[in-house]
Design a protein that fits this description.
This protein is 72% helix and 1% strand. It is mainly α and 335 residues long. Helix 5 packs parallel to helix 7.
């Protein structure tokens, strides 16, 4: 999963005799420059590699010689499956190695070995094992799928997309395959393809929060703001603690000059996650943009306190500077 926060430094505000129109534009530019935008780059869900192996019925068939006529190889393979399911991956890997020493044609042994290697972060070796499994049995949707994961982790996006497509061709009911393909397409800036893939994932798994969130991000970048807002709202409905989506919703509403709705979105983010400094900050900056200087101070102070508690002294110092500037403006207005 890859989330980034884009921070901008505070600047000293210089006020001269400007027309009302110029002052409004200047404040708007200042606001947009300081709005703490949460750039929720496509979230790559940690995939359940341990659950992507063989189903129990197929595992039972293996000991009957369906995949190998070598009983000793079948025994080692079953031993590997048992250890794998118990989380004893080192013993499982060793048993699978013994199985393919006896019979190198057991495709699922290579698949399981790929799973173990992928779980250890040994992506290049995992790619080799999945490739062997696919060469022996091209119908293994799980191997194509997990191969896509390993290729993605190696930044081989084109190859990963192909692997996911092949997995989907064999098993079109796996929402994670569509979702992960959407992630790779998004990173290649293929927004239309990513949006289609996320929609397919949602059609199969309507409660897949990250798919809704990533769909919203892609739609926003595409300029389809109304659909993006709906997707953000769906993500927040599914996961009330997902303040990233709530903040992004507020930011998008600001872009559309729907300031009242944006304030509500930020306030809702704060209600759901009171210790999220970004929501407090964005709310304060929006109130400041609207000229509500007194009201802006409270959320900005709260954001500063949270940053101090988090040990982010640099951000707290920046907020102190901004708060002092707002207080100076308030004092100047009283004169």
């Amino acid at each position: 999963m890859r989330n980034a926060i884009v921070n901008s430094k505070f600047t000293n505000f210089v006020y001269t005799k400007l027309s009302f129109f110029d002052r409004v534009n200047m404040l708007k530019q200042i606001f947009y420059s300081h709005l703490l935008v949460v750039v929720t780059a496509a979230l790559f869900t940690p995939l359940a590699v341990a659950e992507s192996g063989v189903s129990s019925p197929r595992t039972k068939q293996l000991v009957q010689g369906v995949y190998t006529q070598d009983l000793e190889a079948a025994g080692y393979f079953q031993q590997g499956v048992n250890n794998y399911n118990q989380g004893n991956f080192a013993a499982a890997f060793s048993a699978f190695e013994k199985a393919i020493e006896r019979d190198p044609s057991i495709a699922m042994a290579y698949h399981y070995m790929g799973n173990v290697l992928l779980g250890r972060g040994r992506n290049v070796e995992a790619i080799a094992e999945y490739s062997r499994a696919i060469q022996l049995d091209p119908s293994l949707a799980e191997s194509h799928y997990n191969l896509g994961i390993a290729l993605y982790r190696q930044d081989r996006l084109d190859d990963a997309i192909v692997a996911y497509q092949r997995s989907i061709a064999i098993n079109p009911r796996n929402p994670n395959a569509y979702y992960n393909m959407g992630v790779a397409l998004y990173e290649q800036k293929q927004l239309n393809g990513a949006i289609d893939a996320y929609r397919q994932a949602i059609a199969l798994s309507p409660k897949k929060v990250n798919a809704w969130l990533n769909l919203a991000i892609a739609l926003e970048q595409q300029g389809n703001f109304d659909a993006a807002i709906e997707a953000y709202e769906k993500a927040t409905d599914l996961d009330p603690k997902l303040v990233t989506a709530q903040n992004s919703l507020g930011n998008l509403l600001v872009k559309q000059d729907r300031f009242g709705e944006a304030i509500v979105a930020y306030q809702e983010a704060i209600r759901r996650q009171p210790k999220d400094p970004i929501a407090h900050y964005n709310l304060g900056m929006l109130l400041y943009r609207e000229g509500n200087l007194e009201d802006a101070l409270s959320p900005l102070r709260e954001a500063r306190e949270i940053y101090e508690d988090q040990g982010n002294n640099a951000k707290a110092a920046e907020l102190t500077q901004l708060i002092n500037q707002i207080k100076q403006r308030l004092e100047a207005q009283k004169k």
